[in-house]
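Researcher: We're teaching a course module on how sequence relates to structure. For the next exercise, students receive a sequence and then see the predicted structure as tokens, so they can try to spot secondary structure elements on their own. Here is the exercise chain.
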Amino acid sequence: MDALVNASEVAGILGTSRREVVNLAAGSCGFPAAAVGDGGVRRCWDRYAIERWAAAQPEPRWGWSRPALSGPGDFTPLTRQLM
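Model: And here is the predicted structure for the students to work with:
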């Protein structure tokens, strides 16, 4: 399984919109930097960095609902299902 996810997949992990992912990435909230660009067109992030970031956040403030993680290193239910 590939550990890189694009903005749409990050939105699914966080339970928000793709636009909000772009806003989070552009902000100064400590959101993980994009790992690579997909041919210079799309940004991709490390799935585990996104999940660690989400687990470390206090109550959601940016329009996303915190994924069901018990702590850093845990996986969302969808990730566990795909594993």
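Model: If you want an answer key for the exercise: Residues 11 and 17 are 5 Å apart (CA to CA). The longest strand covers residues 42-46.
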